[in-house]
Amino acid sequence: MYNKVILIGRLTATPEMVTTANAKSVTRVTIAVNRRFKSQSGEREADFVNVVVWGRLAETLASYGSKGSLISLDGELRTRHYEKDGQKHYVTEVLA
């Protein structure tokens, strides 16, 4: 089995790095990836993909990335769920 995602898109906000209790760096960003084809109205649509980056790469992204920066990344697709106020929430994100 194989789980690989390759994306090229623009950052929707300036990345902010946080450090976990275990002293690991993590940065969560959203990138906008244009679709190949235009809609019927003639406009190009985009998908917004949540991305999680760990370690040295998270530090580099937080240092050099800014809103609108074009980035390329590869990683794997991850799904998880959590419960809040009695409701189950599902999250799909790319682990870069």
TrEMBL record:
Keywords tagged on the record: DNA-binding
GO molecular function term, any single one: DNA binding
Keyword DNA-binding: yes
Description of how the protein assembles with itself and partners: Homotetramer.
Name of the molecule in the record: Single-stranded DNA-binding protein
Organism: Streptococcus loxodontisalivarius
Highest classification ranks of the organism: Bacteria, Bacillati, Bacillota, Bacilli, Lactobacillales
